[in-house]
Design brief:
This protein folds into 3 domains: about 5-80, Rossmann fold (3-Layer(aba) Sandwich), CATH 3.40.50.2300; about 80-105 and about 175-265, 2-Layer Sandwich (D-amino Acid Aminotransferase, Chain A, domain 1); about 110-175, ATP-grasp fold, A domain (Dna Ligase, domain 1, 2-Layer Sandwich). With about 290 residues, the chain is α+β, with helices and mostly antiparallel strands. It is built from 11 helices and 13 strands. Strands 11-10-9-12-13 form a 5-stranded antiparallel beta sheet. The protein has a 4-stranded parallel beta sheet with strand order 2-1-3-4, with helices on both faces. Strands 5-8-6-7 form a 4-stranded antiparallel beta sheet, with helices on both faces. Helix 6 crosses helix 7 (about 150-160). It starts with a strand and ends with a helix. It is globular and about 60 Å long.
């Protein structure tokens, strides 16, 4: 059997739900006859002795988790998630370009550079995409640096703030959805499904000037309850950006679905294993090929 390393950091271990899931991965790996242990950022040299590497710390090309993924790939060691998927999903500009090329349905999207952040361009953008629009700084995660704006003044203020951290800015049509779905995909196959619980209309109105409209939580959904086409759309989206473990955020409006984004290395601490108890085993088997 094989040896699997689970790459973690101090932040990963600081949350009880994340820690429980990590222990679950370790226990399942050992129940399948594999050896497993946690690898911390100061222990990168141990990666070359592994048969598979599972990254469960935040992925970003500027984080040590990316170095770990690169090191595994260079030594021919299977890794979830691989460095190419990390590069694409960590840069929203790159991700949306991949989705556009694959003709994945997404909200109308424009990419703006610094010289286009002037009143006339902002006004034209609001006219083309409709008001409000959603501004995204390309390296955003967990809905940070994502904001809905209605007016030219707010557009310019937010865009200038985000462009202090990036060379381009993502501007998207705002989709007021009837349902929001989160679909988990593992190397092109369905893994889990959940539905975002949306706030009441009154709470949405109070959140107009805040970062994107908050969700009350996530409700796990059985595969049979997922609307037709959502899983195929999620698979198409993942194939457009790479291979590995992903979750895909999908909005549904008037029977039409739009991919909002593809996330590599998704969290698995929202009750996924309660409805899909084989998640850990499927990931380990996929990683080690047995």
């Amino acid at each position: 059997m094989g040896t699997i390393g689970i790459f973690v950091d101090r932040q990963t271990l600081s949350y009880s739900k994340k820690l429980s899931m990590l222990m679950r991965f370790r226990d399942v790996a050992e129940s399948l006859g594999h050896r497993s242990y946690f690898i911390f950022p100061v222990e990168l040299k141990k990666i070359v002795k592994l048969d598979g590497l599972l990254i469960r710390s935040r992925t970003d090309p500027l984080n040590v988790s990316y170095v770990a993924a690169r090191m595994a790939t260079l030594h021919g060691i299977p890794v979830i998630d691989n460095p190419e998927s990390i590069r694409v999903c960590s840069d929203k500009v790159n991700m949306y370009l991949h989705l556009m090329q694959a003709k994945v349905p997404i909200p109308r999207t424009e990419l703006l550079v610094r010289k286009e952040i002037v009143p006339s361009d902002a006004r034209n953008c609001l006219e083309r995409l409709g008001s409000p629009v959603v501004l995204k700084e390309p390296s955003t995660s967990y809905s940070n640096r994502v904001k809905k704006v209605y007016r030219v003044e707010d557009f310019l203020q937010t865009a200038r703030a985000y462009l202090k951290m990036a060379d381009e800015l993502v501007v998207q049509e705002y989709i007021e959805s009837e349902e929001d779905w989160r679909i988990g995909i593992l190397n092109g196959r369905f893994l889990f499904a959940s539905r975002y619980i949306l706030p009441r209309e009154s709470d949405q109105e109070q959140a107009v000037d805040s970062e994107e409209i908050p969700y009350y939580g996530i409700e796990m959904i059985r595969e049979a309850e997922v609307p037709g086409g959502a899983i195929d759309l999620a698979i198409q989206s993942c194939q457009a950006v790479g291979s590995g473990l992903f979750s895909v955020d999908i909005k549904e409006r008037k029977g039409k679905m739009y991919v909002i984004e593809v996330n590599d290395n998704p969290s698995l601490e929202s009750g996924e294993e309660e409805l899909y108890p084989d998640i850990s085993e499927r990931i380990i088997v996929e990683l080690l090929g047995q």
